[in-house]
Amino acid sequence: MTATVHIIGAGLAGLSAALKLSARGARVILHEATAFAGGRCRSYYDASVGMTIDNGNHLLLSGNRAALDYLRSIGAEHRLVGPPTAEFCFFDLASRERWTLRFNNGRLPFWILDPSRRVPGTRALDYLPLARLLWAPPGKAVGEVIACDGLLYRRLVEPLLLAALNIDAPQGSARLAAAIIRETLAAGGRACRPLIAREGLGSTLIEPALVQLQQRGATVRMEHQLRALRFGAERVEALDFGSEAIALDADDAAILTVPPYAAASLVRGLDVPTEFRAIVNAHFRIEPPAGQPPILGVINGTVQWLFAFPGRLSVTISAGDRLIDAPREELAKTIWDEVARVTGLPAALPPWQIVRERRATFSATPVQDSKRPGPATAWRNLVLAGDWTDTGLPATIEGAIRSGNRAAEMIAKQP
Ligand SMILES: Cc1cc2nc3c(=O)[nH]c(=O)nc-3n(C[C@H](O)[C@H](O)[C@H](O)COP(=O)(O)OP(=O)(O)OC[C@H]3O[C@@H](n4cnc5c(N)ncnc54)[C@H](O)[C@@H]3O)c2cc1C
């Protein structure tokens, strides 16, 4: 097995690759450009709200098998919390209706036949066309495969695909939508339990991984940005960090887990996704009212999902590009106005913070999806990972971790 593996980037793809390789006894050195690990999935202390918050609310599902394996391997599975069964609460701001979707555990979707479990106002037959997504021809957008209108679309398909693909659903890749449906709705309620890191992403997904790596003797170098790769004919010969260059011995390898724009600047001729979508999160320091569900889908509002944490309410708005340049205070007021209507809390704006991630994910259109490379490169000791590589999934924690595991597997198999 390869002597030393340098992993560039300490996001979830980098951390998962490092964990897999260090478990096999490889010598691992993780290089991270910033002063913190976690990349797009991180916690930090925010002075405006006076508490530690996440850059964005992250939802996992019980069917995210790689993510749950990852958590088990770092002893942090218990830090994810969620209801014992697959249920999702919704509130429609226009009609003021509330309902709870309750999936049954098995693969046969009996919940669709039960008016008290399915989306109110829909009929069982309305769900049939969704199956078309599962067999959509390659290169199609969701809007070319199913009709993007009607109650079922607005109350289930749109919120599900917006959250999973981070793009207005009609533009989204049908292949990626199908992957989500296959791994969630079609896999039955057992795969659909919503799970959140109630105490924060950092203490759940990141810090325990760093502790584990340290215990295995891996080296983690923060504020150590890779500036260039030095290429030979068949292999990468050195890693250039500006003030320092590290030569790679014949058996050494590197895994590049940086975002696509960074990878393209480091690897000549690499085709990568070039368009992105934003996610906007608003955090409010306030105790959620009694009975507030941990996750609530909001229909017909700017707010899409409302998360309740101890002492804090947080809102997620996917495909939030139209809000990127909106004045911050105005945006906070608009969002809070909706939250107050949903929760019955007073209209006065509590302490708040808005976090706008401009390049939260690559844009999950069919064209951008087709630009995602696999893990192998033209250099035998250089492997790619990251949520933007071709995992068959949209840019998610599950995709990032699967890509890290896949890269580790490739390196481990090298003679
Ligand atoms: C606001 C928001 C909400 C989200 N919500 C969800 C959700 O609900 N569910 C879900 O599953 N997913 C969600 N995601 C997506 C999820 O966060 C990402 O898919 C995942 O974190 C990507 O991990 P990664 O390791 O591939 O990339 P990144 O996290 O981007 O990690 C790349 C790392 O490389 C480092 N780096 C860059 N250049 C260099 C260099 N030259 N040298 C060294 N290091 C470098 C970066 O600093 C970074 O730490 C969300 C993302 C955002 C932003």
- Terminal Cα separation, in Å? 6 Å
Small molecules in complex: flavin-adenine dinucleotide
In the predicted model, the low-confidence regions spanning at least 5 consecutive residues are: none
Strand content: 15-25%
Structure, described:
The protein is an alpha/beta fold. It is 27% helix and 23% strand. It has 11 helices and 20 strands. The chain has helices at residues 12-23, 65-73, 131-134, 142-145, 151-165, 174-183, 201-215, 260-266, 328-343, 366-369, 397-413; strands at residues 4-8, 27-31, 43-46, 51-54, 60-61, 80-81, 87-92, 98-102, 194-197, 219-221, 228-231, 236-240, 245-247, 253-256, 276-285, 295-299, 305-309, 312-318, 352-362, 382-384. The strands form 5 sheets. Strands 8-7-16-17-18-15-19 form a 7-stranded mixed beta sheet, with helices on both faces. A 5-stranded parallel beta sheet has the order 10-2-1-14-20. β16 (295-299) and β17 (305-309) form a beta hairpin. α1 (12-23) packs parallel to α7 (201-215). It starts with a strand and ends with a helix. The mean pLDDT is 96. The structure holds flavin-adenine dinucleotide.
What's the SSE blueprint?
Layout: E1 4-8, H1 12-23, E2 27-31, E3 43-46, E4 51-54, E5 60-61, H2 65-73, E6 80-81, E7 87-92, E8 98-102, H3 131-134, H4 142-145, H5 151-165, H6 174-183, E9 194-197, H7 201-215, E10 219-221, E11 228-231, E12 236-240, E13 245-247, E14 253-256, H8 260-266, E15 276-285, E16 295-299, E17 305-309, E18 312-318, H9 328-343, E19 352-362, H10 366-369, E20 382-384, H11 397-413
Parallel strand pairs: 1-2, 1-14, 2-10, 7-16, 14-20
Antiparallel strand pairs: 3-4, 5-9, 6-9, 7-8, 11-12, 12-13, 15-18, 15-19, 16-17, 17-18
